[in-house]
Structures are given as C-alpha cells and as structure tokens.
Amino acid sequence: MKQQKKQFFMLSLGCSKNTVDSESMGKLLHESGFNGTADPDDASVLIVNTCGFIEAARQESIGALRELAEAKQPNQLLIAAGCMAQRYGDEVVEWVPGIDGVIGTRRWMDIVPFVRKLRARKHPQPLYHLPEEAVTVGKDEKGVIRTAVQGRSAYLKIADGCRRPCAFCAIPQIKGTHVSRPAKTIIAEAVRLQEAGLQELILISQDTSDYGHDLGMKNGLSQLLRQITQAAPAIPWIRLMYAYPGYVTDELIETMATSPQIVNYLDIPLQHGSRETLKRMRRPANIEWVYRTVEKLRAAMPDIAIRTTFIVGYPGETDAEFDELKQFVQDLQFDRVGAFTYSYEASTPSATVSWQVEEAVKEARQAELMELQQAISLAKNQQQVGRTLPILVEGFGDGVSVGRSYRDAPEIDGYVIVPGELPLGELVPIRIDGAMTYDLTGLPD
After folding, report:
1. Which residues of 308-333 are buried (b: 16+ CB within 10 A; e: fewer)?
2. 3-state DSSP call for residue 70?
3. What is the Cα–Cα distance from 95 to 66, expressed in whole angstroms?
4. How would residue 383 be classed by pLDDT, with cut points 50, 70 and 90?
5. Number of H helices, E strands in the chain
6. Under 8 Å between Cβ of 415 and 356
7. What is 7-129's CATH number, 2.120.10.30, 3.40.50.12160, 3.90.1150.10, 3.60.130.10?
8. 183 and 175 Cβ atoms separated by less than 8 Å
9. What is the reported pLDDT for 1?
C-alpha cells in the first residue's frame, strides 16, 4: 500500500470563488505539516470542495464524493466541504455513505482542527462543522492569502456572502450575508502577488460592487481599486468580475477609465431583459439604467468588453418576455454572453411560483438566445482585426500558442491563437488577423 501519512487530496468543484477557498484550505494544511497530492490513493485525507448552487452542480459533487467513497481505504478520511455541504448538512451523508466529515463554507479556516478531531474520534459517526454565523469571514482567516494562482493570473477574493434578495439564488443561504475583507489585508495580498511576478489580478466575490458597504464605505470598490493600483503598480492587468446591476457607479466608471492597470472589461450578470421577469426574480428591474450605464461605460472606454449572463425559462417567462430579452441583447450588443436554463431550487422563493416553464421550452430558448449572440460575438471579434493587442500567453501545443487578451476572462471567454511558440506567462503584442465566433487569431507584432 502507498504511503498515506500526512498527505491530502483536494478536489475543487464549481466557481473561482470555491477555488480560492480550496487553495486557502490547502495552505493551512501545508502549514500544519500535510503535503498535497494529485493521487487520492496517496492521501490520508480526501477533500471535495463541493458546489451546491444548482442541481447539475450538486450531482457532479455527489458523483465525485461517491467515487472517492467507493475506493476509500480504511485509514483514509473523506470530507465533504464547501457549498453543498453547508446547504444540505447531514443530507450529504445520506446521499454518500462513507463520508467521515462535513465542513461548510463559513468556517473553511477550521479545516486543520477539524481533521484532527476526525482522526481522534472514537466512534465512526460522521462529524459536522456547519456554523450558522459568517461574520468572521475576513477577520479570522489565519493569515492565509485568499487567492488562487493559475499560471501568471490570480483570483483574489475581496468579500464573501451576499445580501441581495434574488428569488432564484441560494447563495445567501449558503454563504450568509455580504462580509467585506479588510482593505489593508487585500492590498497586502496584491503586493505579495506583484512580488511573485503576477501579470493579472482578478478581483472576485459574490458581488464585487458591494465591497465596503458593510464597512460604512461609499463607492468602496472604487476606493479599493485606487489603493491597489497605487500599492501594486507593476501588475499590468486588474480585472473586475461580478458587478451587480445598479451599483456600477459613475465613480467606478471613472476609476476604471483613468487607471491603465484596470483592463477595459466588466462582468455584470443582468439575468434578464424583461422588466416583469426581473421583478419576479427580485432583481433590479430598471432597464433604462442598463441602457444608460452601458452607454456611459462605452463613452468612457470605447473599447470596453462587457460580459453578462442570462437565465432563460424562469418561472412565468412568457413568449413575449423572452422576445423582450432577445431585443435587449440585440440592442445592447454585449461582447460576451452566457445563457443558462433556470434550475428549480426548492428552498428559494422562485420554487413557489406555480408556472414552471417546461424543460424543452427552456432548452429551445437557450439555443435561440445563444444563436442570436453568436452573430453579435462574431461581429465584435471582427472589429478586432487589425488591432495589436497584448496577449497573456497561457499554453503551447500542436505548433500554436494560445493566450487571452484583455477582452477575455479565464475559463469563460475566448482565446487568441498564434502560430509558433511564445513565452509562457508573458504579455506579448499580437496583431489580430482573423476572427471566429469566440476566438481570434494573430501574429506577433
């Protein structure tokens, strides 16, 4: 049998925010004497940081846990961590026999003492660590840098939780209310990443535009951005994700437009383009605000790339409301769009709406919306032909290098494909010579 003493295996599922939590738990385990391993057979502790946002994500998490549980050796511990663990608690153990411990999102920083308790237990019953309170997030993080580094890019979590009332979303149930991390801590982490040679810093939270609200700050995200750019001027790209509609202020737009380090890219999950649907979603329904704000963003930054996401098939969505969404997309010509079918979530207010849209209708609407967006995306990409763009090189294979421009966030947007081998992790000027629906091609300038 392979050596399993003081080694852990970590599988992180779901979003980039989960990835940061996984990295943080891994760092705490390293500091306590554990080594990470990519082979679960080598580990004495197996951890799955689960996603519990929608049904498909839950099934993926359950499948991963079952696979590990079935192969688990007697001297191995299996821990379900993260969002699904927090949301469903002891139900997770019913779904996956063989789990030894369940630890939620709100006290990930307790992973080391939790492992010790599991090792010291005298009876085989599962242990649970699922505190209700999340107020210690940002204040009791054991000094662990809250980032997930991927190549020369890094996600930096600036807050956790969410205070928005969206009827379809279980995040507040899972994460608790919005809690901002101290600006001093975030800035220190950015400086450390700068010293490590980082090329791209991606600020994330459930709602980045809400940063500082709980700290009594006005325009907190703008203030934080200015402090980061002053403290870490050598980071070439700073990217913003997950801004909430209605909270992209004039000050934030000005900060972005006047700070060369902040790339001209903004992700604003709008979720729909029909006022009535948005009202049922308990989302901001001021459609005029969206039109005005997109106009302001493009006036201040003519080359800005705006990304958004939409939910189709939300309960009660009529043909007319879906037509409004399509017109909205046609009018605003977003650079990047993600479209998702509504996922029924029993514990959310949307589950009580009697008129649920049929699955076949949801899927047809999703396909129709994405077909509409594909033409827009192609036209947007064709506008890049002839431009010279700095490309962050991320890989090489089959005779070509791939990288991302400022218009592309990791994992969710497109790539720039360049023949030949370019220096990995470097920003290289590329003259764009071709456009596809989602990707670009080019040559070194």
Report:
1. bbbbbbbbbbeeebbebbbebbeebe
2. helix
3. 9
4. very high
5. 13, 20
6. no
7. 3.40.50.12160
8. no
9. 42
